[in-house]
Amino acid sequence: MLVLRLKQVGNSLVELMIAMTLGLASITAMASLVGHGIGLNSSLLAKSRLDEEVSAVVAVLSHDLKRAGYYAHTDQFVKHPTTVSNPFDKSVKVAAYPSEAANSCINFAYDRNQNGVLDTSSSNENYGYRLKDKAIEIRLDGAACDESGWHDLTDPKVVQVMMFALSIEKITVQQIIQTRVQIDLQARLKKHPEILRRITTHILIENYE
Amino acid sequence: MNNWRGKYSENLLNQEGAAILLTVVLLLIMVTLVTLYTGKIQSFEHQILLNTQNQVRAQATAKAALNQGMAKLNVDKAWLGAQLSGSLDDNSSFTVSAISEDLPGNRKLVTLTANGESADGLAKAKIIEQSLVYPILFNPPPAPLMVQHGFSHDSEFEIVLNPDGLGVSAPFSIWSDSAIVFSGTNHHSCMLSAFNEGNCETNSYSNPSNKLADIQDASTSFPVDVLSYLFNISSVEWMLLQQQADFVFNDCDSLDIGSWGFVWIDGDCEVSGSTQVGSDSQPIILVVFDGDIEFHSDVLMYGLLIAYRPLGSVKNLDINMQSGSAVLGAIVANYELGTKSDLTRVVFNADVMHHLQHNQKLQRVARVPGSWRDF
Question: What ipTM was predicted for this assembly?
Answer without folding.
Answer: 0.82
